[in-house]
Amino acid sequence: MGKAVGLLLAVAAFLCLAGFSEGRAFAAAPDTTYREGLREFKHLSTDAKAGKSREKWLALDKTFVAVYRDAPNGPLAPKALFYRGWVHEELALRSFLKKDATACLDLYQRMIDRYPRHEWADDAYVRRAAVFRDRLKDPAQAMAELRAVIKRYPDGDKIAEAVEMLRALDPSFVPEPRTADPGKDMAKTAPTPGASNAPGGGSSSSAAPNLASPSSPALLSDISKTGGDDYSRITLCLDKETSYRYQLLDQAPGESAAPRRLYIDLDNVKLGPNVRPDEKISDGILRQIRTAYNKPNVVRVVLDIDNLDRQNVFTLDSPFRVVLDVYAKAKAGKPRSPAETREEAAPTSAGSGAKPDDKYDGWLANLFKRKDTTSAPSGKSAATAKDGKDAATAAMREETAQAAKDAAATSAKAPAPSAKAPAVSAYTPPPGSEKRIGDLVEQLGLTVRTIMVDAGHGGKDPGAQGLNTLVEKDVNLRFARILGKKLEDHGFTVLYTRTRDVFIPLEERTAMANAKKADLFVSIHCNAHGDAKSSGLEIYSLNLASTEDAVRVAARENAVSAKTISDLQLILTDLMLNTKMKESRDLAKTVQTQTIGSVSGRWKTRDRGTHEAPFYVLMGARMPAVLVEMGYITNPDDAKRLASDKYLEALAQGMVNGLVAYKQRIERFTGEAAPKAVKKKSAS
Fold first, then answer.
1. pLDDT-based confidence at 452, cuts 50/70/90?
2. Angle ∠(449,453,459) on CA atoms, nearest 5
3. CA 400, 404, 410, 415 torsion: positive or negative?
């Protein structure tokens, strides 16, 4: 009996040991599977023939899935997720399929979200940046990923690589000096392009930005929409800076009639009480905007889009906003608006010297005979016009027309054709066909009939505080009214962003112009400087800032720091592809020349020339757009002039001369008269 008991105990002990050994073998299985996955990854990566097999890559993905699922909290889980992202990155490299690239981005992001303190998290950011840059051609988002590395992992082994990649994308990038122990806070608050390091009135302070974190999330307080039938701007307003991701989802087969979905995920964000979960739009572009928590502390905003041609996403500061521009495709059978066609056919720059075979001078001029009439009516016709304008107004229009004609003729002079160039015979159009020239030029977007005048600042934003109790917002509004009245007297349709003392966010101003299909956008401002000797008139168009002074002016008008302007230039790469930069430069030069000419006889106004800088108020404009700095409100002489209605009248007349000259130059083939004056309109 004792032997039997002893035998049973021995068997039990053997079984226990066997079970224990089996448990140890089972525990070791993920490590073995992981090592097998690494060997297969190396094989597929280095063997060109084997690497062509999609099935083998997908099988390898399942291998790493098994490793992750076996122990999600184990040491191999983050590495398995990372390699899953890498597997799909290698697939994207071979397949050129967007779905593989987006899959790898999602897997890298999952690794970052779940294991933000893992030593490979910064590697995941860098690999995401490379995919955005190389596979999806999205440099702005690539730079956002790289900045996240610099901000969150300053001691990581990828910091040097991230800095090098950023400098390659933006040569002006300068790493911010470290002033505190970065290891103390590794919260997920990756900065985005254009993020402010010193929110406020343009100070270059090195104060830390107000960043959202899991313990202190940002509040999504409002979602606003501005737009028309072919353009919408959606602005997400938050009280803190935070990181975000966005993606345009592909339509599944058979879903051609379904709306496209563009979503944006906002990290460390909570919903405000005024944000509706489902807002119906149905404006021909957007069907609805949906908002909800995608996961704790992550808010997802989804745009259901019925008609999509392209989209832009960028950020603004003070307060932090994420802006989404959505552009619709032209509807079948509907003529394209000037704002749409202008994006495909930019007017020739007369200032650059048109050549005989110029796109329009050669083709368009030979298609229709050029008329001798000018776009502004003569003194006689103005005096006898049906509108009954008095002789003074008629004389003013005649003077403006002559000044504009002289300016256009001077700038449009082309070099003599080469003797070797073949002669181009003029085309004689059939009777009655000359009228078609106006329609053709208008369809190409080469017309100027509607001008939006933007009086800078307003309401709670006073702008610069000047001498003699001058306040910039008041001077801007007074001048905008004077300019608008003169433009109406010359036959333009005039729209205003504001006609009273109200606050309008910067991003809504160009959105108004886009929605109203304005042909030109003119933003009116006064300059300011700590040095009271600074003075003069200058006009800006949108581009990267090339001088310290341009950075200073843009920082003040954007109400951000000079450091932020350097960051802001990162997001311009994508926006500038669809912005009328060249035309805006031409417009700025023409208006600057004519304005200085108008006031120089009586006043000694300094000519500061034309410049380029990244102004929020000009971003996304679909028409030529300029920002006018009328003078320095902090300079005694300039301030005295800006307080004088006589000076403002002369300044406005000079701008009208320049705007008419620009109109004549781009409409020089039509010979059409300026449109009749219409009733003043306001967008506010």
1. very high
2. 155
3. negative
Residues 34, 79 contacting (CB under 8 angstroms): yes
pLDDT at 219: 94
Q: How far apart are CA 558 and CA 560, in angstroms?
A: 5
Helices H, strands E: what count in the chain? 21, 16
Beta strand 310-316 with 520-527 is unpaired
What is the SS3 assignment for 93?
Answer: helix
Nearest-5° Cα angle at 325, 323 to 328: 160
Nearest-Å Rg of the Cα atoms of the chain is 31
Task: Supply the pLDDT for residue 3.
Answer: 52
Q: What's the pTM value of the predicted model, to 2 decimals?
A: 0.50
Give residue-wise pLDDT tens across range 1-24. Answer: 455 545 545 545 544 444 444 343
- pLDDT in the model for residue 6: 54
With beta carbons less than 8 A apart as the criterion, state whether 589 and 655 touch: no
Cα 610 to Cα 656: distance, rounded to the nearest angstrom: 17
How many residues can be counted in the chain? 684
CA 587 to chain centre: 21
Q: Which two tokens stand for residue 439?
A: 């329609």
Beta strand pairing call for 607-613 and 321-327: unpaired
Sign of CA dihedral 326, 555, 559, 476: negative
Look over the chain and give the mean of its residue pLDDT values, rounded to a whole number: 74
Q: Are the beta carbons of 641 and 623 closer than 8 angstroms?
A: no
Spatial distance between the Cα atoms of 684 and 511, rounded to a whole number of angstroms:
13
**pLDDT tens readout for residues 507-534:** 788 888 888 889 999 999 999 988 899 9
- pLDDT > 70 fraction of the chain, expressed in percent and rounded: 65
What one-character-per-residue DSSP string does 614-642 give?
Answer: --GGGTT-SS-EEEEEEEETTSHHHHHHH
Q: What pLDDT is stored for residue 474 in this prediction?
A: 95
CA dihedral (555, 560, 562, 568) positive or negative: negative
pLDDT tens track for 617-669: 787 788 899 999 999 999 999 999 999 999 999 999 999 999 999 998 877 65
Token pair recorded at residue 646: 């006589």
Contact 451, 659 (CB under 8 A): yes
Of 610, 618, 621, 612, nearest to 658 by C-alpha is 610
CA distances from 296 to 103, 212, 275 (A): 22, 14, 17
Residue of 500, 494, 475 lying closest to 628 (CA atoms):
475
Q: Are 562 and 204 in contact (CB under 8 A)?
A: yes
What angle do the packed helices 391-411 and 581-599 form, to 10 degrees? 130
- The full DSSP string for 165-231 is HHHHH-TT--PPPP-S-GGG---S----TT--SS-SSS----PPP-B-BTTB-EEEEEEEEEE-SSE
Structure tokens at 191: 């900065």
Once rounded to an integer, what is the mean pLDDT over residues 443-450? 69
Contact, 300 vs 292, CB < 8 A? Answer: yes
pLDDT in tens, 127-147: 999 999 998 988 888 888 998
pLDDT at 408: 52
Q: Phi, psi at residue 386, to the nearest 5°?
A: -65, -25
- DSSP letter for 258, please: S
Give the whole-angstrom CA distance, residue 324 versus residue 286.
12
Residue (of 94, 132, 125) closest to 111 by Cα position: 125
User: Residue 568: pLDDT above 80?
Assistant: no
- Whether the per-residue pLDDT at 257 is higher than 60: the answer is yes
Question: Which two three-digit tokens encode residue 642?
Answer: 């800006």
Q: Worst-scoring range by mean pLDDT, 347-356, 392-401, 476-485?
A: 347-356
